[in-house]
Amino acid sequence: TATTANLDALAFEGATKRNKPNLKVGSLVYARISLAHKDMETELECLNPTTGKAEGYGELKGGILADNLDINKCKSLLEKNSPFMNTLMQGFGFPFELATAMNGKIWISAPSTSQTISVYRTIMKADKDGLESLNDEWFADIED
């Protein structure tokens, strides 16, 4: 379920009162929950609290958002040496980026719109039909 959260303008790497990120309403960000309590508004931040660096957090530009994925599939993409991620990386002949959340949402970006859609379709197929459905024949039909 969706809930509101507060993302302070200073919760970004290098942000100051004079130098704030220029986010528009509806911008998609990759953030971490920094405070969650039942009696308080949830707070987000777009930096690693230990290092103060963005390390991948921040605004996600371009790409598409896949949602309503199985949460276990999302978790499997985040595992070290993930079979799911390894299958995707070996199957495509082009680079792509994923930002995987623990709420069933994945942001996908590739060099072209058609490649981004190919990655999206592949993830959705694996979510519906299982990882074993991603065989060589499936990837042979994908545009580079």
Automatic annotation (TrEMBL):
According to the UniProt record, one GO cellular component term is:
nuclear exosome (RNase complex)
| InterPro entries recorded | Exosome_RNA_bind1/RRP40/RRP4 (IPR026699), KH_dom_type_1 (IPR004088), KH_dom_type_1_sf (IPR036612), NA-bd_OB-fold (IPR012340)
GO molecular function list = RNA binding
SUPFAM superfamilies in the record? Eukaryotic type KH-domain (KH-domain type I) (SSF54791), Nucleic acid-binding proteins (SSF50249)
One Pfam family this chain carries? KH_6
What domain of life? Eukaryota
Tell me where it resides: Nucleus
Could you state one GO biological process linked to this protein? nuclear polyadenylation-dependent rRNA catabolic process
Going by the UniProt record, its keywords in alphabetical order are: Exosome, RNA-binding
Q: Where is the K Homology domain?
A: 69-113
State if Protein biosynthesis is listed as a keyword. Answer: no
Classification via PANTHER family: EXOSOME COMPLEX COMPONENT RRP40, PNAS-3 RELATED
Would you tell me the protein name for this molecule? K Homology domain-containing protein
Q: Which organism is it from?
A: Wallemia mellicola
Classification from the root reads:
Eukaryota, Fungi, Dikarya, Basidiomycota, Wallemiomycotina
